């Protein structure tokens, strides 16, 4: 009985959400009836953002400024009140007095709700408490909020709601907005860097007949106008290489790719990939470019080459470590694959070490499985892992002195692959044999294997110069520079399961 009474008392204290929403709509109806419909306003002249005023207070003090943003708090005290307005760059306190605004306008202000978007014009000053503020001389309601924002001091913490309602997340969590502003700055920095190195930014098709260039299962759709089944691209590689054939010696593309795979802290089915290709260089040229670019981004965006990530400091200032895949396995697992020449020996060793493999796997596949099992998690500081087995690298040039390996590297930071680069295979005869091997793997059950792209083969037969190429996962790069633990934290709208499923 006592519990029921407590519950009733608690419910009596809590406002009815439906009633609150009803009141907001009633306020809107009153405004519209009075000829003050905020949704009829088409523009508002903004002269500065909140942080501009705070950062350059000496310039702004005593001067008139116009700001616009969302009202995040309001404290009404009779004839004078305070509110806090949040815009793109931060927030600022506004002092609102009836004598300055006028009786009618002050009455309208008191009827405004948290979440409403307002425009305020006033004089910049500092309160007795030392807070930089705006003394409002006019205020206009620019948009009426008909929903209730999460409670200010607890914010929006439910990650599922945060990802689904990113707009609310951006309003309530300042660090989230900073992450996405940083993402934009990082991508702009990359573009400027590559443009300065003589690269041309290009665009290539997203809907393709043959989704190649990576080991991934594609999404499939149907092109009604052509009555053809097509796939969403899984990489940018094969079209960019066509451009190298065409004489565009340095090209890059930043764009979405789509892989029909699971979701976890490092994977999202659609993500942003950057690939670049440079004629007349090799994978060592790609290593140098990568190391210099990461260091440049750190200096330009972070102001330092030592950046925090999770529980460690990542040092991008010193030379990145370079290890072959075989040497890395030797270093961290104590196994030397230079002494293991056959698939049978490799499988026997995998059985002894508890490394799971499939019947179709050969020596090169098992080397890669050992790397994933014993090495990846140890690669905390920037490390280039070079010279991968040919079996897992169908588009890469072989090493002349060790043809069972290819001129390929992946760079790892904090145990995560950050990029993948090749000395690109430009021998069309070898490339056709690699595609045949991939098709055999596909027939054997590998649904991520490539198929032969005849138009790409035709381009190679016309002739492609020696070329270095690389792909960067932009989302993982942003995770690193923003100290974000999961890929969803750096995607404005990550893939989510529909709520009605």
Describe this structure in words.
This protein is of the alpha+beta class and 501 residues long. It has 2 domains: 2-149, Nucleic acid-binding proteins (OB fold (Dihydrolipoamide Acetyltransferase, E2P)); 174-320 and 381-490, 2-Layer Sandwich (BirA Bifunctional Protein, domain 2), CATH 3.30.930. The protein contains 17 helices and 20 strands. The strands form 5 sheets. An 8-stranded mixed beta sheet has the order 6-10-11-20-19-18-15-14, sandwiched between helices. A 5-stranded mixed β-barrel has the order 1-2-3-5-4. Strands 7-9-8 form a 3-stranded antiparallel beta sheet, with no helix packed on it. β18 (408-413) and β19 (416-423) form a beta hairpin.
Strand line-up across the major sheet? 6-10-11-20-19-18-15-14
Number of strands: 20
* CA(first)-CA(last) distance: 40 Å
CATH class of the largest domain: Alpha Beta
Let me know the average pLDDT. Answer: 93
Please outline the major beta sheet. Answer: 8 strands, mixed
What is the CATH homology-level superfamily of the largest domain?
Bira Bifunctional Protein, Domain 2
| Secondary structure: helix percent | 25-40%
Principal-axis shape equals: elongated
Count the domains.
2
Low-confidence stretches: none
CATH topology tier name of the largest domain: BirA Bifunctional Protein, domain 2
CATH A-level architecture of the largest domain: 2-Layer Sandwich
Radius of gyration equals: 29 Å
Number of helices: 17
Structural class, from secondary structure content?
Answer: alpha+beta
Sheet-strand content, in percent, reads 25-35%
